[in-house]
Amino acid sequence: MFQNWGFLLAEMWFLLALASLLGVTAGWLIFGPGERSGATRSEEVNALIADLDRSRAMHSDKDDRIRALGAEIDALRASAAPAELQPEINSKPELLTAPRAEGPDDLTRIRGVGPKLAEACHELGVYHLDQIASWTEEEMAWIEDRLDRVNGRVIRDAWVAQARDLLKAKAA
Q: Who contacts 162 (Cβ-Cβ below 8 Å, separation ≥6)?
């Protein structure tokens, strides 16, 4: 029945050896050599920890200096008058409980004011361009303090100047 048993067994052993060799080679290529440069994993970890400690020691004086400067800044803030550090935000502009009889102005005509921001202005009591046109710096700071996501846009986008221009164009 099987006449070439010897050849079949030899071929199977050869193919098994070849598959084993390919498996070991693939594993070595994927996972790399067991030890790098003769150092074990614990030696590598110890070397990294030593590097970290040296780095911390080198920069500890900088951390101390940063803390000292922070303390100086805090002391200066505590001794300075609040008006020196930030604009007065207690100066409330003219606000209305409802728009006048002619209805609210379209605040979205001001560059930088979208529908959501116009709605937020309405919730504060700002409905008309003449209200915005009369704002002082302190009043702009009060508005910015109470509107979310404005981040200086009232001044940067010149809402007051735009409102004045729109009022002039409306009057003409």
A: 110, 111
pTM: 0.49
User: In angstroms, rounded to a whole number, what is the distance separating the alpha carbons of residues 25 and 17?
Assistant: 12
Q: Is 128 in contact with 153 (CB distance < 8 Å)?
A: no
Which pLDDT score, from 0 to 100, does residue 34 have?
58
Cβ proximity of 76 and 121 under 8 Å: no
pLDDT value of position 151:
80
Residues 131, 96: contact at Cβ < 8 Å?
yes
Burial of 151 (0-12, 13-18, 19+ CB in 10 A): exposed
Token pair for 132: 């915005």
Beta strand segments in the chain, E: none
Q: Who contacts 148 (Cβ-Cβ below 8 Å, separation ≥6)?
A: 120
The span from the CA of 5 to the CA of 131, in Å, is 104
The residues with which 36 forms a beta bridge, in sequence order, are: 39
